[in-house]
Write a structure and sequence with these properties.
The complex is a heterodimer of chains A (103) and B (490).
Chain A lengths: L1 H9 L1 H18 L7 H11 L4 H9 L4 H38 L1
Helix pairs in contact in A: 3-5, 4-5
Chain B lengths: L2 H7 L3 H26 L5 H22 L1 E3 L5 E3 L3 H21 L5 H33 L8 H27 L9 H23 L8 H18 L7 H22 L3 H24 L4 H7 L21 H9 L3 E6 L1 H6 L2 H13 L3 E6 L9 H8 L7 E3 H7 L5 E5 L8 H4 L18 E6 L19 E5 L2 H14 L1
Parallel strand pairs in B: 3-4, 3-6, 4-5, 6-7, 7-8
Antiparallel strand pairs in B: 1-2
The chains are: A mainly alpha (103), B alpha/beta (490).
């Protein structure tokens, strides 16, 4: 039990953020029309590309060849996720907005 | 104390870190607002740009201001910047090109591919951080690795690996490179791998850290990949959208694990936000298809002939192209119900052409869009929007059903299960209760289909045998082309 409490105290800030973010995530998208499911999924897909920050941090402190190579690959993969994700989403949404303006 | 000294003081590491933290708060706000805007049709595009802006900010400030505390107590900024920028450039160019070149019909697999990249990135981070942590613990003679950080590393690798492997399989299935393997044994193998995966996490956590003892972490990574493959493999290709959405939220959680490890607020909020909203989105998608998530994962549609009912002497009536052309041209209200077959045949532009053609003859043409028409919820809207179909002409399922009674002709193009009356009148049907477009309530129905093959629910569709229904067999694209020619000749 004390172990659990200790764990909670040690990571309370992170736990706090995690719990609030869970509720926020649910709240923010719960009224999305089904038309937007695909673009929304694609947009969320790009946001989790934030993992690239971790890749940059590891790469930024890599000292041997193996971790340099792995880090380099990780940064490329993360960038693919971010850039590809946002560009694809934008392309999808572009079509919606284009139609609306014409009318 | 001179001015110069005060000036230099203001640029100590702690200030860098504050700047970095502020940038992360801004990035988090932009993610949240972006996601919020993405869920409304009018603001969606801006929402995407806002989130992208937040991402750019977080990346730039991490490179400039991130510091890590070294063992001797000093702080070190990001090294290897040249390599990092090179990797960023390569990733950006490749990602941009891939995203710009992909066809709208291939969008779902592209999203899956990018999702897999994120998962792999998270897994690689864990692979690199684990040896560092273990060596550090080994040096301090720790008896076990039980800590939040170790758990974050292991889960980051596990979830990231599953997400990567699963997304690749989903990509392969949607791209029709991998077929469905529906074997019940695979489900047990799948559960077995899940068990091994969890056992491995516990094992690594409780083992005594030894310098350079990395075999276990590689095994964990391998198990994650195997589980990812066996998890997605038995799920039918048509359920891939739900699976991608689920794996999308997995990757979010994997990213959040990285955030936990580095106490990085941007990664933590961004990751969890996607994790939770992705889960809700997955459930919403399932609801739109009237299925439960569990059902998608372990059940899988079809196979069973249950509810197919009396086979009897059913015959379908075909309609000739010229008859169809006449029927359409002399109607007042026509409703097009597009389905997956239209997407596959890339016939959305022809659809628009027919709409214009009939429009010029005074026929009112609208589209009835089932929420899960196409490959993903909303996918059909994107495809028709690409073909310049006006937003106002797209009716949602309820609107379409309300107008069905005074619709003269419904053209069903490559749709099947979403127009199956069994969902309404046959309680024993696997799709019973699924919301459908009630095309049989219109005065006439023309069904364009390649063959009498079943839809992905693998059940008979009684619509085809109804007296008001006429079939027009052939590939959606060529049939539409011929139909256009016929209408022009009238």
């Amino acid at each position: 039990m004390t172990e659990v409490l200790k764990f909670f105290m040690e990571y309370r800030e992170a736990i706090f953020i995690i719990i609030l973010s869970i509720f926020l995530g649910i709240e923010v998208i719960s009224h999305v029309p089904s038309v937007l499911h695909t673009p929304l999924m694609s947009g969320a897909n790009a946001i989790h590309g934030v993992v690239i920050i971790g890749a940059i941090i590891v790469m930024g402190h890599a000292h041997n060849v193996l971790s340099m190579i792995l880090g380099f690959i990780a940064v490329i993969l993360g960038t693919l996720n971010v850039v590809g994700g946002f560009v694809v989403t934008n392309r999808m949404l572009e079509m919606f907005s284009k139609k609306k303006k014409q009318k | 104390m001179g001015t110069l000294e005060t000036l230099t003081r203001t640029f100590e590491f702690s200030d860098y870190i504050s700047v970095l933290e502020i940038s992360y708060i801004l990035a988090s706000i932009l993610f949240i607002l972006g996601l919020k805007k993405l869920s409304h049709p009018d603001t969606a595009r801006n929402g995407n740009l806002w989130a992208a802006g937040g991402m750019g900010l977080a990346i730039l400030f991490t490179i400039l201001f991130h510091k890590t505390k070294l063992e001797d107590g000093t702080y070190q900024g990001i090294q290897n910047i040249g390599w990092i920028v090179a990797a960023l450039l390569i990733g950006s160019i490749v990602g941009w090109m891939a995203a710009m070149k992909v066809k709208m019909t291939a969008m779902p697999q592209m999203v899956s591919l990018f999702n897999g990249m994120g998962g792999a990135c998270a897994a690689l981070i864990s692979l690199m951080e684990f040896p560092k942590m273990q060596n550090m613990l080994a040096a301090s003679h720790a008896s076990s690795m039980i800590s939040g950080e170790a758990l974050a590393i292991l889960l980051g690798l596990g979830i990231g690996g599953v997400s990567f492997a699963g997304s690749m399989i989903a990509f392969g299935k949607l791209d029709e490179r991998i077929g469905d393997i529906k074997s019940p044994i695979l489900r047990y193998i799948n559960l077995f791998f899940l068990f091994l995966l969890l056992a491995m996490v516990v094992l690594i956590m409780t083992m005594t850290p030894q310098k350079d003892n990395n075999l276990m972490i590689y095994i964990l990574g391998l198990l994650a990949l195997l589980y990812g493959v066996t998890f997605v493999m038995p799920i039918g290709g048509a359920d891939m959208p739900v699976v991608i959405s689920l794996l999308n939220s997995f990757t979010g959680v994997a990213a959040a694990m990285g955030g936990f490890l580095y106490s990085n607020q941007a990664m933590l909020t961004g990751g969890i936000l996607v994790g939770s909203s992705g889960t809700i989105l997955t459930i919403l998608m399932c609801k739109a298809m009237n299925r439960s998530l569990l059902n998608v994962i372990i059940g899988g549609f079809g196979g069973s002939a249950a509810g197919a009912g009396d086979q009897g002497d059913k015959t379908v009536k075909e309609i000739s192209l010229s008859d169809a052309a006449v029927l359409l041209s002399y109607s007042q209200k026509v409703l097009v119900v597009p389905g997956y077959g239209l997407a596959v045949a890339q016939a959305q532009h022809l659809c628009h052409e027919i709409e214009n053609l009939l429009g010029s003859k005074g026929v009112e043409v609208k589209y009835g869009i089932h929420p899960v028409a196409g490959r993903m919820p909303g996918h059909m809207n994107v495809l028709l929007a690409e073909a310049d179909v006006a937003y106002e002409k797209l009716l949602e399922m309820e609107e379409a059903n309300n107008e069905m009674n005074n619709t003269d002709v419904v053209i069903v193009i490559g749709a099947n299960d979403v127009v199956n009356p069994a969902a309404e009148d046959d309680p024993s049907s696997p799709i019973a209760g699924m919301p459908v477009i009630k095309v049989w309530e219109a005065k006439n129905t023309i069904v364009m289909k390649r063959s009498m093959a079943k839809g992905y629910a693998a059940i008979e569709n009684n619509l085809f045998f109804l007296p008001k229904t006429r079939m027009l067999f052939g590939d959606a694209k060529s049939t539409l082309q011929k139909l256009i020619a016929e209408i022009k000749n009238l």
